[in-house]
């Protein structure tokens, strides 16, 4: 039986980042997490049908996969997460101290900053459309992968984590700012993304995705770009590069094999794409 994994990715005076995953065969999987006093909690739900019960408000939520909430807790609070029917329980929690957010936003500097902090304190970043928690964007997924895969420690890690948290907050504020402009009108982008997440390492063609989803190629590109603010080609490339970088750092697999594993038929094309992305060749990255 696989033991639950609680990975503390980062911990400082103001910020804590935890990745939790439980894939045991138990029928009911449960996890308890603590919200610190006067803290903001970003909770990304990475598996389907997760239930949440918060003791501070006596409210029960059920989340779909890839939904998230930004929650403020004035007092230390305990919340329970659980799944049923042997579903995997996986989530990503980022806890940030109130003072850190206050100093970052500087609410006294202008009315927009004051409004953002007030919305955060009033927990207005929980429901987006029709009383439903918002869904993560592609960029949010990428940021979480980057945080999970970052290996440096000390000052470099601190600066990296803080920069990624700021980027996540910007994406959240933008998403909620646009919520009254247009309702999400199609499941197609989510279907496309799921297909790409599962098949990015293969030689995927737009024609194939179009056939599977059942919409024409132009509409497919347009809907994906509209919801995720990136092209299908760029998203595939980003997923491949993230996987390749992790394999180069964490394993001794030959560069040629990594290229094939990440969907590149020719190692030269892989090396060119990798150097363009990271400014260094795969071989030099491995040598440090």
Automatic annotation (TrEMBL):
The keyword DNA-binding applies. It comes from the Bacteria. InterPro entries: Homeodomain-like_sf, HTH_AraC, HTH_AraC-typ_CS, PchR_regulatory_protein, Tscrpt_reg_AraC-type_HTH. Gene3D superfamilies: Homeodomain-like. Keywords: DNA-binding, Transcription, Transcription regulation. Residues 190-288 form the HTH araC/xylS-type domain. It holds the Pfam family HTH_18. PANTHER family: REGULATORY PROTEIN PCHR. This is AraC family transcriptional regulator. It comes from Chryseobacterium oryzae.
